[in-house]
Amino acid sequence: MDADEDVAPAVRSILDAADARDAPESGRVAVDPRSLDAAFAAAEADGRAPVIAEVKPTSPTTDGTRTEDPVELARAMVDGGAAALSVLTEPEHFGGSPEYLQSVRDAVDVPVLRKDFLLEESQLDAVEADVVLLIARFVGDDLADLLAAARDRGFQVLVEVHTREELERAIDAGAEFVGVNNRDLAKLEVDLSTFETVAEHAPDDVTLIAESGVSTPDDARRMRRAGADALLVGSAIMDYEDADDPTAAVQANTERLTAAESQTHDND
């Protein structure tokens, strides 16, 4: 793991928990993944903004824990036009689990990203997913080896970066999917200009995903204009606390963002 200590206390707690987590006992996985590129292309062909909708019970930046059936929420996101899903498997801080992801993946036909803080190769074997996340800042010099180990198991790999320097490391390691996190993990502050600044240095053959801070159709359009091939959206889609029907609210929230490019600014 990267020796960088300049992160928010909540993030340090997550990393410490990940570092202490026992290796899975299920053995090495082998995945036949659903294509993320194909899912994005299908969304665009259908006139939708490619969105990876995130199913998460809770997080350090939200209040409370959601108790709705994750499978029903996932289906609502797909019905709302999500090209892919992201599912949390981090247990202590996000309320996720490998079983949580498995139940969602079994219920949908779109690619599913495993969202977790993976620090070593053995952690890749906790559950089959179509895509796994590697955060460049936290895996440090192990990025290339972990990326290769994930691909050897069949995973597609989303490498998360926050700076131009991390982008360069991701490209040097062979990343094909790069997520630019608009959230600064040192301060937990979100700035959409982060994607704009970093994305302009990305090569054309890399699939770019804007992560964090996309809350409105206008945000979605802004990120797409800046070069985002897709958007990873969690909180804005999972915002249903006051809704009488959570699944209907999640579907409507997803539709609002996937339809962003066909909406006018007056619809925001």
UniProtKB/TrEMBL annotation:
InterPro entries linked: Aldolase_TIM, Indglycph_syn_Halo_TrpC, Indole-3-glycerol_P_synth, Indole-3-glycerol_P_synth_dom, Indole-3-GlycerolPSynthase_CS, RibuloseP-bd_barrel
MF annotations from Gene Ontology: indole-3-glycerol-phosphate synthase activity; phosphoribosylanthranilate isomerase activity
Pathway connected to this protein: Amino-acid biosynthesis; L-tryptophan biosynthesis; L-tryptophan from chorismate: step 4/5
Alphabetical GO biological process terms: L-tryptophan biosynthetic process
EC number: 4.1.1.48
NCBIfam families assigned to the protein according to its UniProt record, in alphabetical order: Indglycph_syn_Halo_TrpC
One Pfam family recorded for the sequence: IGPS
Protein name listed in UniProt: Indole-3-glycerol phosphate synthase
UniProt keyword terms in alphabetical order: Amino-acid biosynthesis, Aromatic amino acid biosynthesis, Decarboxylase, Lyase, Tryptophan biosynthesis
Bias-annotated ranges (Polar residues): 250-262
Indole-3-glycerol phosphate synthase domain residues: 27-245
Similarity annotation: Belongs to the TrpC family.
Reactions this protein catalyses: 1-(2-carboxyphenylamino)-1-deoxy-D-ribulose 5-phosphate + H(+) = (1S,2R)-1-C-(indol-3-yl)glycerol 3-phosphate + CO2 + H2O
Location of region: Disordered: 1-29, 246-268
Name of the top EC class for this enzyme: lyase
PANTHER family for the chain: INDOLE-3-GLYCEROL-PHOSPHATE SYNTHASE (PTHR22854:SF2), TRYPTOPHAN BIOSYNTHESIS PROTEIN (PTHR22854)
